């Protein structure tokens, strides 16, 4: 059975073969270093909500205070979050909307609406997106990040991501913001490895910022 690294190498070969621009990015950037985190979807969604509209360091500080409320656990269980008073969750630094979202995530995890990693394997990408977008504060982009960075799905293209848009615009020499039609026209041939193509667009955008 192929490992995740084997799949990344297969993706690089495929993208190099079908897209000259992507072949250049792969040559310049090097091997794809995507390494999904082995977290539960519940934990990943909670952390994603904490990071919304905050600098990474500030979000991690607040998350640290949140986790510290439950000293006997590496990460709080959904039932324990639901049993925690709203004001106590606010006191760690979460906004009212974020507390509402985190409690809704906990409620839907406790009810089995948010699947475990094992259960998620039986659901395709779009099923997961539609299911998890029912959670307060969770949009399509948040679920796409979960698919990529937690579940390691290899055919996800987050077209609404700012970094992806910047990388695509620069790589394909566009003078305007790329449309969904642009993405569809160019990346159809990337399938079933659009996640890896997205990773190279992110790295390309990062390189432009550094320059």
Descriptive notes:
- With 211 residues, the protein is mainly α.
- The protein has two domains: 87 residues, Endonuclease Iii, domain 2; 109 residues, Hypothetical protein, domain 2 (Endonuclease III, domain 1), CATH 1.10.340.
- Helix content is 63%, strand content 0%.
- The chain contains 13 helices and no strands.
- Helix 9 crosses helix 10.
- The longest helix has 17 residues.
- The mean pLDDT is 95.
CATH superfamily of the largest domain: Hypothetical protein, domain 2
Number of alpha- plus pi-helical segments: 13
What is the CATH third-level topology name of the largest domain? Endonuclease III, domain 1
CA radius of gyration: 19 Å
Cα(first) to Cα(last) distance is 41 Å
Biggest sheet overview: none
Form type: elongated
The CATH architecture designation of the largest domain is Orthogonal Bundle
